[in-house]
Design brief:
The chain is of the alpha+beta class.
Length: 720
């Protein structure tokens, strides 16, 4: 027996059309009729009642045959759901598409023609003649013979199929605006206009509780389709008028329980909304007659309303009970995605606030500071752990610190804040950069122990940090790095180069890999520019990290000495940072100024008994030259005498005395080769030891100790 099927039944169009038999009555199928008959009156057609299931579900299947020029040759769109699609033989298929989708779909159609490989299950919108859109699942099937063209099968995205596709699409972003937009686009399958209005606390990421109705404040988070709207209509980013917010809140919280409502016609809408101002704000146009309002509810005790989803329809398309049930199910399934986006927004805001708090505020008299911080884009894993700080030290130097903590979110933020504050405290206490990094290294290791770190699901091992100390007297920078990228130094003549810093493992490295931290010293004469940054600024998947650093050096070298440093920093970041940032971008620029030569003086004295007298003589002559007040001069002379006496008494080797005129004060420094730490303690009435430090403490506004390779320096500041 010859079982070869007929050509009409073997084509993709014939196979799809035959699958419509259970939905389309015999004798009326468009597939069996000519093109003219296929466009007959569809309004009078009804589903076949022979199959009990057929009358209980929507007709959602259709097929269109195209030639190689993408012109419709046959169509079978007899199901009522396709009413309004102007698909006639001889017209172009792309006329059914929204203009923004024409290039993409055309490319897919021609790709199937060329390769013969089907393209299935594309979620697509088709334009009806009245301007509304129909959401379908579109599959492109090649014909058995290439010259016969293509068959496009259409499945109206209704009921379970659309619920599944919508829920899958809505949970793909942690950005609250994108999540609301995805929900609104999915709701558009049930109406002409869809909007999502969120509680303002949800929009900003704050905690949401069952607050009273009088305090409700709604903000429009999403609106589809994208077109010109009447004047006064609320669009995304706008707050709803207080009356509109209160009405929506009361409508969906009837009997103190959130529930969906339907306002079926224009007259009822006008009666419910009342105020013309509220009508202009909520009703999308004259053709919109009915609306379904579905609350976004978290299933808590009591339930928490996150916002309201609204679907508007024309008067000739009233909402059926089954459609309202589907709308409620979709919103209920996706409300938790909105709450997840809210939590992400809250965490993002908290981390961002912490990082901006750590940004340097101002520089000082000896260095100009500018910084730029740009967080990762909202759809990334979250704000990272970049941190940057700069602050003047009590002894006149300036500390520049930049770090990058591993990971994202609150765990990274907590570690970032702890390391930043610890670094500042240790540097202010006079520790050298390498000693500070040793302490930070131990801190990261302790934070990562089994109890506090790993048990919390976060590890900071491998975090990086770079510390630079600028001395405005010697015009030198002392720098230590723990796994961080090398800073870039631009000399006053415009030559830029990365500083030669010996590579070192990051903080918290394994014990076998730990090495002593090095201190590198570089000359930075006045007018030099130092750039510290994190890897997000120079990393690019298509080039090596060295090329990225070279691009940064080139960009920084173009900064003119007269340019505003803050504007220059923004320009450098905009030129180098990627548009879609998967990591935070941080840049710190420091332009060195230093002290003028006439504002500092240094003396080197032998550690002998006459050293205090010689120091007083030298300092007294300088203070007269600076025209210092008599009371200030007496205070400084007594202070220098006590500090030099202590240095001679408890240390060996030469004594260095340095006097700096800075701002509204005088800074006195006495350095020696001793390693003992002067400490202020409470002594007995007749005790001789320690009285010198008490005198220093009483005479100065602040004093302290910093350590050097050859000993220590005791510094003290006196107001002048």
């Amino acid at each position: 027996m010859d079982s070869t099927p007929s050509p009409s039944s073997s084509s993709a169009f014939g196979l799809v059309s035959s699958a419509l038999g259970r939905y389309i009555p015999r004798g009326g199928a468009a597939a069996a009729a000519g093109p003219a008959e296929a466009q007959g009156d569809r309004a009078g057609r009804r589903p076949v009642t022979g199959d009990p299931a057929a009358g209980q579900q929507d007709q959602i299947l259709g097929a269109v045959n195209l030639d190689r020029d993408l012109i419709i040759t046959r169509c079978n769109l007899d199901a009522p759901v396709f009413a309004g699609l102007h698909a006639v033989a001889g017209s172009s298929f792309v006329d059914l598409l929204p203009p923004r989708d024409v290039p993409t779909v055309t490319r897919r159609l021609r790709q199937v023609l060329e390769t013969g490989e089907a393209h299935v299950a594309r979620i697509q919108r088709l334009r009806r003649g009245d301007g509304s859109e129909l959401v379908v699942s579109l599959s492109i099937l090649p014909a058995a013979a290439p010259q016969e063209g293509l068959t496009v099968s259409l499945i109206a995205m209704a009921r379970r199929l659309h619920l599944y596709a919508a829920e899958t699409a809505i949970g793909t972003s942690l950005d609250i605006g994108e999540t609301a937009q995805s929900l609104a686009q999915s709701l558009l399958a049930w109406g002409d206009v869809a909007a999502v209005d969120l509680d303002f606390a949800v929009w900003t990421g704050e905690g949401v509780t069952g607050q009273g109705q009088g305090r409700i404040r709604l903000r429009r988070a999403a609106l589809v389709p994208d077109r010109a709207w009447p004047e006064g209509y609320v669009t995304p980013g706008d707050d709803l008028p207080s009356d509109a917010s209160r009405l929506l809140a009361q409508a969906v919280r009837r009997d103190d329980a959130p529930q969906a409502i339907v306002i079926p016609d224009r007259e009822t809408v006008e009666r419910v909304l009342g105020s013309p101002r509220v009508m202009r704000a909520l009703v999308p146009g004259d053709r919109s007659a009915g609306v379904a309002c579905i609350p976004l509810v978290l299933d808590h005790a009591p339930p928490v309303v996150l916002g309201v989803a609204e679907v508007w329809r024309r008067a000739d398309c009233p909402f059926r009970d089954s459609e309202l049930f589907d709308l409620q199910e979709l919103v209920a399934r996706t409300a938790h995605h909105v709450d997840l986006a809210r939590q992400h927004q809250r965490e993002h805001t908290q981390v961002l606030a912490l990082q901006r708090r750590l940004l340097p505020r101002t520089g000082g008299d000896t260095v100009e500071i500018a910084s730029v911080y740009q967080p990762a884009t909202p759809d990334s894993a979250g704000v990272g752990g970049d941190w940057v700080n700069s602050f003047p030290l009590p002894d006149g130097r300036t500390a520049l610190v930049v770090g990058d903590v591993v990971g994202h979110g609150l765990g990274a933020a907590a570690t970032m804040g702890q390391l930043s504050m610890e670094a500042r405290a240790l540097l202010s206490a006079g520790l050298a950069p390498d000693e500070v990094l040793e302490h930070l290294d131990k801190t990261v290791t302790l934070l990562d122990d089994a109890e506090s770190g790993l048990a919390a699901g976060y590890s900071a091992l491998g975090s990086t940090c770079c510390i630079a100390l600028y001395d405005p007297v010697s015009h030198q920078v002392a720098l230590s790095s723990a796994g961080h990228l090398p800073p870039v130094l631009v000399s006053p003549d415009g030559h830029a180069r990365p500083l030669a810093v010996r590579p070192h493992p990051g903080l918290g490295a394994e014990f076998a890999l730990r090495e002593p931290f090095d201190v590198h010293t570089f000359d930075a004469p006045p007018g030099s520019l130092l750039a510290l940054y994190t890897d997000g600024l120079v990393e690019d998947p298509v080039e090596s990290i060295d090329e990225g650093i070279a691009r940064l050096a080139d960009a920084v070298s173009r900064v003119h000495p007269w340019d505003s440093l803050q504007q220059a920093a923004r320009h450098v970041v905009s030129a180098l940072a990627p548009v879609c940032r998967r990591d935070d971008v941080t840049l710190l620029l420091a332009r060195t100024i230093g002290y003028r030569k006439g504002d500092t003086a240094t003396w080197r004295l032998p550690a002998r008994d006459d050293a205090p007298a010689r120091a007083r003589s030298q300092v007294s002559a300088l203070l007269r030259k600076w025209r210092t007040r008599d009371d200030t001069r007496d205070t400084v002379l007594l202070l220098v005498s006590e500090l030099v006496t202590n240095a001679v008494r408890f240390a060996t080797g030469p004594v260095t005395v340095r006097l700096i005129r800075a701002g509204h004060g005088l800074l006195c420094e006495v350095g020696d080769t001793g390693n003992g730490r002067p400490r202020l303690s409470r002594g007995a009435l007749l005790d001789d030891g320690g009285r010198g430090l008490h005198i220093v403490h009483r005479l100065t506004t602040r004093w302290g100790v910093r350590w050097t390779d050859g000993g220590k320096v005791v510094w003290a500041e006196v107001a002048r």
